[in-house]
UniProtKB/TrEMBL annotation, chain A:
The lineage of its organism: Bacteria, Pseudomonadati, Bacteroidota, Cytophagia, Cytophagales. InterPro entries: Cyt_c-like_dom, Haem-bd. Residues 34-147 form the Cytochrome c domain. This is Heme-binding protein. It holds the Pfam family Haem_bd. It comes from the Bacteria. Keywords: Heme, Iron, Metal-binding. PROSITE patterns: CYTC. GO terms for molecular function: electron transfer activity; heme binding; metal ion binding.
TrEMBL record, chain B:
This is Heme-binding protein. SMART domains: Haem_bd. Gene3D superfamilies: Cytochrome c-like domain (1.10.760.10). InterPro entries: Cyt_c-like_dom_sf, Haem-bd. It comes from Cecembia rubra. The keyword Signal applies. Residues 12-127 form the Haem-binding domain. It comes from the Bacteria.
Length: 161, 131
């Protein structure tokens, strides 16, 4: 009995101790002038899906849950958001050139279609971020359609052999 | 009586013919640009020599095939091709391709400066500089 108390006490101390390890959550910015949804490329229903299923990691508009303030989960959240934004940040959409946008849209279609995104651990903690098959199809169709739209609009900027 | 019936039937037949003709006219000016976006031959030469070995439909290199399949590329629509080119460009700039591991065993697979330049130029999508 005494032994158990010691172990629990020790664990509590460790948990308290790791709270002192510095951990920086990527900064939140609500207003982003170059945001994808503001670019007019996204229909309202798709915009809603992107907001609830992607934007926490793939934009500057991250909504941090309580456990993102507590170690050790805070470390994981910080890492995922940092990496997510690095790979694709919808808040900087307008700053990407056309080719880059096309590449990202293609990646989106692929990752959403084969279920790679949103990440399992994220959906586990955010039930509302889970995508149904129909919602996946909607996003894929949007991404592919948007690629064609961008190419048509940018036609004059390209020169083909 | 029978002759009277013939009139609307004739009219109907005529209508179908007219209809068919109109449709034909429309379908002529849809999708004229199938052969527009082929890879230039000097680029294709580099691809065949330095990339195609792993990036083809029958490749034993599963990861390479999955990431990029040149046979598939040529059959893709323009937007998809441009998207792939953007990703090729990124991989080349980062120096990720050909993979360092691969070059350890096959140093002759390395891209020469000219070859790299050729691929970079092409995969950049030849965007005209803004006026």
């Amino acid at each position: 009995m005494k032994r158990l108390t010691y172990i629990l006490g020790f664990l509590a101390l460790v948990l308290l101790g790791i709270q002192l390890v510095p951990n920086e959550l990527p900064e939140v910015q609500i207003y982003n002038t170059g945001d994808l949804i503001q670019s007019g490329l996204v229909s309202e229903d798709v915009a809603g899906l992107l907001k609830t299923s992607c934007y926490d990691c793939h934009s500057n508009e991250t909504v941090y849950p309580w456990y993102s303030k507590v170690a050790p989960t805070s470390w994981l959240v910080a890492k995922d958001v940092r990496e997510g934004r690095e790979e694709l940040n919808f808040s900087y959409w307008a700053e990407m050139d056309l080719m880059k946008q096309l590449g990202k849209l293609d990646d989106i279609a692929e990752a959403v279609e084969n279920g790679k995104m949103p990440m399992e651990i994220y959906v586990w903690m955010h039930k509302s971020a889970k995508l149904t098959d129909a919602q996946r199809e909607l996003i894929v169709a949007w991404a592919e359609g948007a690629m064609d739209t961008l190419v048509e609009e940018g036609e004059e900027d390209f020169e083909f052999e | 009586m029978k002759k009277l019936l013939l009139l609307p039937v004739l009219a109907l037949v005529a209508f179908f013919f007219l209809h068919a003709k109109v449709k034909d006219n429309i379908s002529i000016d849809v999708k004229p640009d199938v052969l527009e976006d082929q890879i230039p031959s000097h680029v294709k030469a580099v691809i065949d020599q330095k990339c195609y070995g792993c990036h083809n439909a029958d490749s034993k290199n599963e990861k390479g095939k999955e990431k990029l399949d040149w046979d598939d590329f040529e059959a893709s629509r323009k937007a998809k091709q441009l998207a792939t080119m953007a990703k090729i460009n990124e991989a080349l700039i980062k120096g990720d391709m050909p993979p360092a591991k691969f070059l350890e065993n096959k140093p002759e697979g390395k891209l020469s400066k000219e070859e790299l330049e050729t691929l970079l130029d092409w995969s950049a999508g030849k965007k005209k500089s803004p006026k």
